[in-house]
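Homework help board

Subject: predicted structure for assignment chain

Our instructor gave us this sequence and asked us to write out the predicted structure in token form, then describe one feature. I got the tokens but I'm not sure how to describe them. Can anyone check?
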Amino acid sequence: MTAHNIPGWRFWLPLAAQVALILAVPAQAVYTQVSGRTAILQTVPVDPYDLLRGYYVTLSYDISRRETLQDLPGGEILVTPDWSTETPSLFESGMPFYVVLQPASTADSASPLPQPWQPVRISGDRPTNLPANQIALQGNYRHGIISYGLEAYYIPEDQRIEINERINQSQQLDGTRAFVVEVKVNAQGQAVPVSLWVGDRNYKF
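My token output:
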């Protein structure tokens, strides 16, 4: 069969598949933002020189620390794998896991920040039938780093210096409770950032 006799669908089908794949990422983010449930995540102090990289703000979270998670119910899956057992650690490189979060039991009325949700347990499988006040956030462990796909946010250039200065000031005054991030989490445990709270200021993403 010569080139001019090859059916057109053989060219258009791969192209359409690539376009669909590219569009699926923002579509998933929009779906999560519309249908997801709101949760508040506590950040951890950052080096001001690493905070801003280009047009992105780079953050880490309390639940990104292994020591925060390993003592929770289900935390035994975070230990170094014991290959003599039938159920090795799920903390093999690249394996997903889920952190179950719920609102803080008490609210600090003196703080202008929304109160961060607390991790209550972890699971290797996506939890189902959770109580109405809990959500499951999907995490990933790779090369010694815990991530949730929430670590880098684009910010407008005209806000970069202001955000950096306010975060630095808040960290000096409040330490680990300097700022929190509002996220939306969908039923599959995937999340997108919604806004960043620094003191009484809220920056939308």
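Reply (TA_rk): Your tokens look well-formed. For the description, you could write something like this. The radius of gyration is 21 Å. That's the kind of observation they're looking for.
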